[in-house]
Design brief:
The protein is of the alpha+beta class. The protein contains 14 helices and 21 strands. The strands form five sheets. Strands 1, 2, 7, 8, 9, 10 and 20 form a seven-stranded mixed sheet that branches. The chain has a seven-stranded antiparallel sheet with strand order 17-16-13-14-15-12-18. Helix 1 runs parallel beside helix 5. Bound molecules: dihydroflavine-adenine dinucleotide.
Length: 409
Amino acid sequence: MLTDVLIIGAGAAGMMCAAQAGFRGRRVLLIDHGEKLGERIRISGGGRCNFTNRTVSPDNYLSQNPHFCRSALARFSQYDFIEMIERRGIPYHEREHGQLFCDESAEDIIDMLRDACDDAGVQRRMGCAVHSVTALATDDAAAPRFAVATDLGTIRCQSLVVATGGLAIPKIGATPFGYKLAEQFGLPVIAPQPALVPLALAPEVLTPLKDMAGATLDARAQFDEAAFRENVLITHRGLSGPAILQISSYWQMQAYARGGQEKRRPVSIDLMPGVDAAAWLCEHRQGRIHLPNLLAERLPRRFAHEWCALLGSERFVSRPIGELSNKELQVVAERLNGWTLMPAGTLGFAKAEVTLGGVSTDALSSKTMAAKEVPGLYFIGEVVDVTGWLGGYNFQWAWSSGWVAGQFA
Ligand code: FDA
């Protein structure tokens, strides 16, 4: 079998790239080992797909090279994707933080991309596993450069696009194929790690929190310079909720610092974002109210009571706050604005939304997504070391990088 462009992975990035290359008149074959197109799109955003965000910038992405994503995001932006959605007539709505979701179903996006592929003459083969990839020696730019052994037989192609995604949720078909192929061709890979993932706490940290499980707090989670004000959820295994998922990516990023040798540091949770807890406690100092009851004015009642018990002295619970010393109130205020917890790890790829790390951007052209040293080989989407925040940014990277590669492959 012979084709101009072979794309492995019929997910968000692969479908976008396939349609674009097809519209350029390239013969495109799109293959996937799964049975369904765009399975990750289907399950995303609770079935409504948070397909992009109103505001997208390189600041919304983590990568060893934070500038790499700039070019693709500028060339096919969120506005370009929104225009596609509107042209197709897909109803959508905006939620907090500029997140855009389908009104009805994520299937609308899959149908749009499938139809674009069909209109562009893309051939599709689902349920097709890849066994090996061999580079073919040739000086002729028009000759096939790769032989790919698959369930369909050997496919020869000029351009090979790897769009196999990351490792999150292995049960829906995630594989390390893209990383292994990169290594086969000598491209460096930044060790993949689960990101946008709940954080696990060690038993000695978790046990005193067990009666708080289920509490949802409007809080500000912080790690180094990164901070997100959204919900934090205390769970039976540790911490979750959007603010924690966001901060987990930055906490995981630390694993790369100094070659992974840096000591792990805690995350900090501001339980009273935007409020100077010291001043607020001071305002209530004259009253006879006890600390847990005062905190329950701003925090869930059960949480407030359990949290006070963690302060380490019966006095914080048994005495009215007017009887607490300045030093004691200072301790409470500091902990309210910066409750530090040391994660023991994450809940892993099974519970992660994305993968941090991947094919190193050093090895790729940001203009084309092609491997600099391997003509005809492209990497797009999540398999690349570009990881977005929660909020539609990961799909936008898939659309942008897929679109760009589709102009060159
Ligand atoms: P994607 O994973 O979409 O596609 C990769 C394809 O490659 C798959 O079809 C897979 O079967 C195939 N494949 C893998 N290995 C293969 C092999 N060896 N041979 C052949 N085929 C192979 N993002 C966002 O912006 N908004 C959101 O609402 C959500 N929601 C969300 C929910 C959940 C539960 C998850 C797990 C993830 C999200 N995401 C998200 C993240 C988003 O889904 C993700 O970043 C994109 O789908 C990445 O697109 P790709 O095309 O790179 O990979």
